[in-house]
Structure formats: structure tokens, C-alpha cells
Amino acid sequence: MLTSMRRTGRPSKGDRVVLYSRPERRVRQAVEKSATQNGYSNVSDYVAAILAIHEGLADLAPRPDSDTSQQELPMNHTA
Question: Which of 3, 52, 75, 79 shows the greatest Cβ crowding within 10 Å of its Cβ?
Fold first, then answer.
């Protein structure tokens, strides 16, 4: 018998589309550093925020991660 299944994970970020860009390597590295310094866990959200603000749509900009204290789990140990 199937029971109702609840979807877990992060909530939807809303209506989004893909936008590709291929900056110079040094630009990418600078953006990665800025994203981390500004509390974003991924470059995509940081770039989306910059674009939204630049276009006068700051209310649509992704926000930095609320909990930046989490760290990656060490994957060099197996169960």
C-alpha cells in the first residue's frame, strides 16, 4: 500500500530560465570569490542577484544563504 509521500529538499526558487555566459577565467575567479564573500553558496545565484539589481529589479534578486555556517561534509571517509 502506498502512503502519501512528501517531497523534501529545498523549496522552489520560482520561475527561472537559464542564461549562459563565458567570461574570461580571471573574471570567473573574481566572481567566485565575491560570491563567497557575499554569503552565496553558488555563483549562479550571485550573478542572478547582480543582474537583477543592475536591471532595477532588486526585489527579484536571490538573497545570500541564510545559514553560511554549514560546511561541506568530509567525503574521504566511507561508512
Answer: 52
**Could you identify the residue written with the cell 555563483?**
43
* Nearest Cα residue to 37 out of 24, 46, 27: 46
The stretches of 1-79 forming alpha helices (DSSP H) are: 25-37, 43-54
d(CA 40, CA 36): 5
Map out the domains of the chain as residue ranges: 25-60
Note whether 40 and 65 are within 8 A (CB).
yes
Amino acid at 35: A
Query: Global pTM?
Result: 0.69
Is the Cα torsion angle 18, 24, 27, 29 positive or negative in sign?
positive
